[in-house]
Amino acid sequence: MIRPVVRPVLELLGRDLRATALAQAASAGLPHGTPDASTVEADEVAGLPAPVQRYLRFMRVVGSPRVWSFAARFRGRFNLQGRGWMPAEAWQYNCAHPVARIFHMRLDMAGVVPMVGRDTLLDGEGRMVGRLLGVVPVANGTGPEYDVGELTTWLNDALVLAPSMLLSQQVTWEEVDQERFDVTLTHGRHTVRARVWLDESGAIRDFSSRDRWAALPGGLAQAEWTTPFDGWVLAAGHRLPLSGKAIWHLEDGPLTYVEGAFVPGSVAVNLRP
Predict the structure, then answer these.
(1) How many CB atoms lie within 10 A of CB 119?
(2) DSSP H helical ranges for 83-165
(3) What are 165-220's pLDDT values in tens digits?
(4) Closest Cα partner for 131 from 119, 121, 139, 120?
(5) Which has the higher per-residue pLDDT, 138 or 153?
(6) What do you get for the CA distance between the two ends of the chain, in Å?
(7) Distance (Å) of CA 180 to CA 37, 44, 50, 153, 206
(8) Any residues with CB less than 8 A from the CB of 88 and at least 6 apart, and which?
(9) In 46-146, which ranges are E strands?
(10) Mean pLDDT of 221-232
(11) Buried b (16+ CB within 10 A) or exposed e, 246-268
């Protein structure tokens, strides 16, 4: 009896995800000024550690315009606090000038009730909001844990979708061995760190950081967060992972809570909202 009433609302929310994400970016005044979109030259990366250079070559950074923003669509499924899998769809807008992230997601709870989630990083402050039917509040997280967590997610996004964003930030790169490097990003009063694993082609196969907090039924818990990827594809000039996961490594074992992929053809770079 619920489905005929809720389904049109669910479909409407899905169509509006991209529009609402871009509208929020515009209202935040993103980007600031006129960002640099000049070509990345080989000498800019020549001094970086060998595995980092190999990764940047795979991502086709050198010889391409530097990216200062992107929009992308994600499709997959979400396991909310380990309560079971739900279909998920999202649009996001990330910016480098200033560092910002706007992620709007829709979950289909029980197949009929849509929940809209918004994760944002604006002016150095992270926030997580969730609303049933896009109206009824069910989550509203703010504070230093969210500030650091969203900055870590911004770093992950940049590494996966737009690594030239990192060339204009306070970033340090350190070689671990031929297949691994560490990356540290400082923005404002926060610094986050991650380790990256590469495959033989230079593509990212995993990312790990302890600078995020899992929202669990008992509250926030700092834990290792990893995002393994399975294969990569070149679509419309952009390298994209074929599929990926987000995993919390908790005291009682790993919890995979996201599975899915960015939609080929959906990525748009240097976009003003």
Answers:
(1) 21
(2) 144-161
(3) 999 899 999 999 999 999 999 999 999 999 999 999 999 999 999 999 999 888 99
(4) 139
(5) 153
(6) 39
(7) 29, 21, 10, 19, 10
(8) 74, 75, 76, 77, 78, 105, 106, 107, 108, 258, 260
(9) 69-79, 85-96, 99-109, 113-122, 125-132, 136-142
(10) 97
(11) bbbeeeeeebebbbbbbeeebbe
| Digit-coded pLDDT (tens) for 66-106 | 999 999 999 999 998 777 899 999 999 999 999 999 999 99
Residue 49's φ and ψ, nearest 5 degrees, are -55, 150
Per-residue pLDDT band for 49 (boundaries 50, 70, 90) equals very high
**Average pLDDT for 232-260:** 96
CA distances from 218 to 86, 221, 248 (A): 21, 9, 15
Buried b (16+ CB within 10 A) or exposed e, 70-99: bbbbbebbbbbeeeeebbbbbbbbbbbbbb
Mean pLDDT of the chain: 92
Domain count, the chain: 1
Cis? peptide before 35, omega within 30° of 0: no
Q: Residue 188 half-sphere exposure, CB side, CA atoms within 13 Å?
A: 15
Query: d(Cα 96, Cα 242) in Å, to the nearest integer?
Result: 25
What is the distance between the alpha carbons of residues 155 and 148, in angstroms, rounded to a whole number? 11
Rounded Cα–Cα distance for residues 261 and 269 (Å): 18
Rounded distance between C-alpha atoms, residue 184 and residue 171, angstroms: 5
pLDDT at 255: 95
Q: Work out the widest C-alpha separation in the chain, in whole angstroms.
A: 63
- DSSP string across 210-269: EEEEEEETTEEEEEEEE--B--EEEETTEEEES-EEEEEEETTEEEEEEEEEEPTT--EE
Range of the domain at 201: 3-269
